[in-house]
Amino acid sequence: MPLKSKYLVFLSVFFFHIYSVSAIEPETLSKYKQIAESKKLWEDRYWTLLIHYTKTTFGWESEADSPSFFLSEKGRKNPKEELLATLSAIVSPASSPNPEDKNWMHPRCKFPERTRWLQQELGIPNSDLAVADCSRFEKWIGTLNPKAAKIIFASYYMNAPASIFGHTLLKIDSANEDRKDILEYAVNYAANADPNSTNAIVYAVGGLFGGYPGVFSLFPYYIKIGEYNDAESRDLWEYELGLEQDEVIRMTRHIWELGSASFDYYFLDENCSYHLLSLLEVARPSLHLRNKAPFVIPGDTVKKYIEQANLVKEIHYRPSIHSKILQKVRSMNEEERNLYLKVIRNGDVSPLFSEQENKNIRISLLTDSLMDSFQFRKMERDPYPNQNENYKKLLLFRSKINTDYDDSKNDPITQSPHVSHGSSALYNEVGTSNLGNFYGFGYRAAIHDLLNTDTGYVPNSSVDYFSFKARYYENTKKLHLEDFHFVRLLSLTPYNSLSKSVSYFVDSGADSSVYEKDKDRQRNALRYEAYVNPVYGSYSLAQFERDSGKDRFERVTNANLEGTAGYSFQDEFSPGPKRFLFSVQAGFKGRYNGKYDTNAVVAPQGAAYFIANFDSFKAVLSLHYYAFGIYNVQNDYKAQLGLRYAIHPNHELRIEAKAQRNYNEASFSYVYQF
């Protein structure tokens, strides 16, 4: 290279270096920093919302965990340092630390909402901002073209650990009126782990204790409809929010910023619903939605939206394919319903074609119901015989007939979670037993037990996380842990011609049983001799039994692990309320305590449930038999009958009776849910 050229290159690099250094603290930047410090701008609520700061015992700390979300090394715990670093970054030139990093963006492009807010608060004109190519962000937000927003609630799904609490996501509606609703985009926050490739127990434990990072993602809404509505048969409830367009745009800019952030994901706390609350606070800072209870349940957050004045404008119901089928079949008359069942049981659609002239049968209603049923079974991976051939016949037949029914007035199969009872509960009880009278209390963190009203939840199901009951027995003058459930799941999904669902029960924690303390027959016989021997006085056998029985039995708490599976039966197809359900299951029960010679026993178990539901009144009978005899231990059983009257969705009265080997009790309780 000629000397002159080398000299020019040297000067260029030298002056660029001087410019870059001097640009770190130009006069204009100093002026804006002075204004920020005089206003203590880092204490502004909006800044704490943008960086997701929460107040802790030791000061501020961001809930975001990824370093890429911060521009200051101290930014995660120091709002002032992060604000000043952001201010410096957006008015100073910057170059990629790695030219090969194609994802690198200038901070003013990476954090457009921070930039907009600082411009507004400090009066920074565009001319004072660093020159940067923000075309990627501009193209992204231009594609979304945000105008309005909806909160989407996907109903509870009992067949996946991540979904038993339900799920919420945010839908961004476009200002483009020609864009169809299902082509809009949905913002999803979820654990960055695949529950299908991870052991269900490991996944559940990891999700409970923050073992996975949570990330935001953006999907076309039709993908989520396919996942929830169709593949998982979950109803969707859409809550149209009363946000102004500028609020939605502000929130959307922040969603872009969160693309560089990850958070520790907790099923019961910092979950999908919690972080959507934070997005809405960014949209409308006057909202204080994250003033959270100890546990954040998706259904409860929906109630928060409803409670806020002018936040929810309308509620829309989008039934799953399974719910659509039930809606159609329940609207049929008896002749139509019999024909529908005949076709799906026999796998032959020809009887439908021969009924075209029958005025009592709505042919298009039956055809659509059958096609939906075939699609449902295909997604369940359990198709009917000759399903593909029959489906093609129905498609061709349907194209030639008119619609003869209106399903717009069909009742929803499930109810919106905002009308459900509270997910946490307090129990207060009094009762009597063959071990004496007792007083009890209990607590449930989440979310629903079998005696609760089903409104807003999956019917005939139970999801207990972190629940316990304790009792004080008058005879022993001691407080006794009656039971504890780390997680207890019960799903009684009906088995029928449409759905071959398996019901199941899983419980882990602790339960109680009665242990017969005096097993030494020789010592027992010697004591009997003492009672009947004249030397010791005239005692009768009855007197001996009364005296020796005082301390003969002891109620003990066992570590417990059990699971059963089977089938439940209910008439799902007829119209009207579903009053009765019967279920039969088989499985195992594991029990541990120091009273057994082997300490732990795992035995076969049989179980049955009968439910009668009459709205405010509900009765549940459950029967469990445990074959501990294989360990030369007495078999055990548990028969429970519960009667519930709901004064209000959150206030219940219950009468319950329970029989176990060596133990019987009856109790009256009041349950408050919140």
From TrEMBL:
Domain Lnb N-terminal periplasmic stretches: 137-305
Domain (DUF7843) ranges: 40-120
InterPro entries reported in the protein's UniProt record: DUF7840, DUF7843, Lnb_N
Superkingdom of origin organism: Bacteria
Domain DUF7840: 415-668
Protein name per its UniProtKB record: DUF4105 domain-containing protein
